[in-house]
Every structure is written in structure tokens, then in C-alpha cells.
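Session log. Operator J.P. requested a structure for one protein chain; no other inputs attached. Running the standard single-chain path with C-alpha cell output.
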Amino acid sequence: MNPMEIQAAPPAIPGTRWIKLSLSKRVAFLVVCLCIALVALDAWQLWRTRAFQLRETEIASVNLAKSLSQHAYDTFKEADTVLVGLAERMENGDSNELKFDRLHALLAARVAELPQLHGLFIYGPGGAWVVNSQPGQPARLNNSDREYFIYHKTHSTRSPHIGLPIRSKSTGEWIVTISRRLNARDGTFAGVILATIRMDYFREFFESFDIGKHGALLVATDKGTIILRRPFDIAYFGRDISAGPLFSKYLHQAPVATNIFTSSLDGVTRINSHRRSAAYPLVILAALSRDDALANWRMDVLTHGAVMTLLVAGLGFLGFRLTRQIERRTTAEAALLESRAELLAANEALEQIAMQDGLTGLANRRCFDLALAKEFSHARRTGTPISLIMIDVDNFKQYNDIYGHAAGDACLRQVGAVVGGAVNRPCDLSARYGGEELVVLLPGTDAAGAWCVAESIRRQVAALIVPHSGAAAGFVTVSAGVHTFEKFDAASTQVQLIVAADQGLYQAKALGRNRVCVKEVNSRVDALERA
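Structure written below.
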């Protein structure tokens, strides 16, 4: 039995390094996760805002396209209604009813009623001006070279025709035309009836909408020729954009739709809502710039980014300070734990010294007393035997007198080594009882077993042949007394065990030394002694 085993084991010291690293890393990880969560949440919210802004712009462009389409339809429908009435009167009336002065007054009245009209004109089969709504009748003017006149002359259809933007020959204004074919009674070409619509009428209406810095509005023929576009530029009038994405792709997919694409005219990416007119060969486009739509959102992103940067930096700084504080605290705790461990180790070393005999290296008297109390209590509780061997070096006083105390100490060390080596079980204990007396405590060992251990010690000491001129044998020997408690009663005590073993020792001394005596020896022990 190790002398320290009878003491309570010191408390385990936790892995302070692991605690320190783990706690610091967990705090840092928590701060990083918090920052990431805040950034992710803000980014998600900003992305939702972006999608919402684009959706709102898309709705605005759809509504704007619908409004422009309705305006264009109303404008051309009113003019076309006038043309239909005039064409019927021209084709079905007699010459007396269609006096030029009365017809001129009728045309002028219609132009005065409709603000979009620039003028109403009737041309003969050769292109000559027959009558118009303007004051005075220009002489020798001919419009046979105009696109609309050529169209009606070469096409027998009676549907209205919307022409390209042109400058009026009479006033020089930019106009767009809507015209119908006049037929003679036999169905041959009899001329053209024409209404001219002021481009400024469309322009004024277009300018009433806020479409942003890079927005665009467009009225074009269904063949892809521009009638009017905002931003206004004369260079756009009559320009062919049939190869652009609107006419080459999206109009083929749906007559009414919204798409995002880049303009072939100015390279601006816009949210484009188009509508093809069901009544007239017109296409209306309302296009709002994506950059304009997201301008405020981008400012919000910059603001949020700056605020989030400051917030993350603040959290990072607080997390850093918190981590440092935790590290300092855990470092201090670790230092305290290490100091405690060192103190426990020092105490253990002192306890080891206090429980060990300095000369022989065996357990000392204090250690023996504690071990005996522990094992005796256990034996009483479990009903198992417990044995004690008392050993004394024979004639040791004479040995010291003859050879000196230094030699005596060396002799005790040799005997102690033999006694210490005689026990092998963890529960056994060999100790120096006092002076030249040694003891061996054998829990769970009966008398016969204890006698065998004692006899083995006696023989091994004798085998050392340590010279001793004062001894009868001529060398150092030991005597031993053995006693065993196999049955316990209320009167059984530790003292009785020690006294009985000591009596056995005195018996061995009295019988001539260099022997083992067992107190209350049974027949098996007697047989072993005789052997």
C-alpha cells in the first residue's frame, strides 16, 4: 500500500487551456455569427426593397403605356371619325351639295372642334388640292409625291392609313397623318381625304409625365417606324427600329407585355411596357430607366452600408474587448488553478515525506496507524481476516555499539528493503514502527499466510549475512511475532492486534531469536514451524 493512498485524492484540475481557448473562440464565433446575421438580414431586406422598387416601376410603366395607348387611340379615332363622315359625303353626295365654299367651312369647323387637328385636306386622283380647312386655297399645290397618297393609290383597302411624320407644305409644322382612300362610283381611285395631327399635341401630352432622367416614351407604326419619341429629337422622326429587340422579339411574343432590355437607340437599359393597338397600326412603348428606378435604392444601400459598417465595427470592437476580458480572466483563473495544483503537489510531496520513514523508505508510524484503522474497520465490516507481523532486529543495540550508528542505519536500510519487498498486494503495508522495530500489515490474510510472509522475511534477512559479532549466529537476524484476527466481536480492537503480535515477538525473543512466533498458533502453523 502506497502511503498516500490512505489520503483523499486531490480534486481533478480542469483543462484550463481548453477552457480558455474554447471560451474565447466561442465568444469570437458568436460575435462573427451576429455580425453575419445582421449583414445578411440587412442585405435581404435591401434586396426585397430592390425587388419591390422594380415591381413598382414595372407597374408604373404598364399604367403609363396604357394611358399613352388610350390617348393615341382617342386622338386618331376622333380624326378618323371625321374622315369617315367626310368620305361618305364626298362619295355619295351630288355636285350641287358639295360646293367648295360650303365644304371648306365644314372642314374648318371640324378642325376647330378637335384640338389635335392641324388640318383636313381632300386631294383629287392626280394629287391636286381640291379643298382644305385652311384659310385661302393654295393654287397649283400637288401632293401626289406624299407617302400616304402613293399608298392609297396603290392599295384598294378602305382602312385608315397612318403615315410617317412629315413637315406640312402649308405651314412647315411637323405633323403625322391619318388618311382614307376615296373611290369613284365605279370603285376606281378618286383621291385621298387626309387629316393631319400636330406632333406638338402628342409632345405636350408626353411632357406631362415624369419619366425620370433616362426614361423614354414611343409611338411607332406596327412596322417599326418611329412617329414620336421622348426624349424629343427630330432625327428620330421616321427612323426604322424594326431590327431592335421590341419589334424583332417581344412584339412577336405578346401584343401587351413588360420586359427589361437595352434600347438600340441610346443603349440605356429600361423596364419597357409595350401595347399594340387593336384598332390602328400603332405600337406604344413606355420605358422607365432601371438606373432611375434604383437610384434612391442605391442611396439607401450606401447609407445602410455605412451604418452597417459602423455597427459591425462597433460589435467587433465590443466582441474584441469582451474576448480580451475573458482571456484575461481565464488566464488569471488558470494561473490560480496552476498555483493550486502546484500547492497540492507540494502538499502531496510534504504528505509523502510526512508519511514515509526517511531512513528505510518504508511507511512511518503515522501512516501505519492510519492504514491499520482503515483496514481494521474494513475487516470488521466484511468479516475478513487481518494479520499483523511485528519484526525486530536481533541484538541491534550491540550492533550499534560495535559498528557505530552509521553502520546501524545502513543495516536498517537493508532490512527495510527486505521487509518492503516481501509485500506485493496493493492493500499490504510495510512500515517502520519505531527504532529497529518494523511491522507488516496484511489485510485479508489468515494466520498461515502471515506466518509464511514473516518466515520469508526472516530467511531473506539471514541470507544477507550482514556481519554481527555480537550475535550468536555471527550475522544480523530478525525475530517476528504474528497475530491474526479471523473473527471479530465487540471487544476486538486494533490495540489487541498490536499487543498480540508484540507478544508473539517477545515469545520469539525468549525462545532464542531468529525465529517467527504466532500468537495462538493453530495446528497448520505448528506444522509449518516444524517443517
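Operator note: Confidence is low (pLDDT under 50) at residues 7-20, 521-531.
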